[in-house]
Amino acid sequence: MMKFRENEDAVSPVIGVILMVAITVILAAVIAAFVFGMASNVDTQPKSVAATAQVSGGYIVVTYQGGPDHDEVTTVTCSVVDASNTEGGNLVGDAAEDIEGVTLKVGHKWSVSISEIASGAGGEALVTVSAKFSDGTERTILDTNLKVPKSTP
C-alpha cells in the first residue's frame, strides 16, 4: 500500500498577513493626508454668484446680482445667441469683462438690442453668463432662454 504525504500547511495565513499589511498602509495614507493638510484644501462648497436677464425697452438686459463669493470673481462673460435660428443660432452679443483691479459692482448691466434677434422679427434668445473665480474655477451663473418680441423701428 502506498502512503501519501499529508500537508496541512494552508494559504490562509499568508493571505491574512497580506490583507493586514494592506489595511495598515491604507490607514497610514489616510492619516498622513489629514496630518499633512492634503485633505484640507478640498473645497466642498461650489462658488456662488448669480445674474438675471430680461427684455426691457428694446434690449435684452443682463444684470449681475453678486452672491456670497462675489469678492472672488475675476472675470464675467456674458453671451446672447439668437436661438430662433434653426441652423444653430448666431452670436448676437458677447461681452467679457476682466475685472482684475476693477471693482465689479452688484447691479452691473450688459445689454443687447432685440433688433439683432431673428433680424428684428422676434423669437428666442439664449443668454449665458459665466464667472471665473480667483482660484481658477469657472461656473455658469445664468443659462436661460428669453422670448423676444418683434422690434419696432
Descriptive keywords:
single chain, elongated, alpha+beta, 153 residues, 16% helix
Low-confidence runs (pLDDT<50, min 5 residues)? none
Strand order of the largest sheet: 4-3-6-7
**Mean residue pLDDT:** 79
**Any idea what the shape is?**
elongated
Q: Tell me roughly what share of residues is in helical segments.
A: 10-25%
What portion of the residues fall into strands of 2 or more residues? Answer: 35-45%
- Main beta sheet: strand number and arrangement? 4 strands, antiparallel
Structural class: alpha+beta
Distance between termini?
A: 114 Å
Series of secondary-structure elements, N-terminal to C-terminal: HEEEEEEE
Gyration radius (Cα, Å) is 30 Å
Count of alpha/pi helices: 1
Number of strands: 7
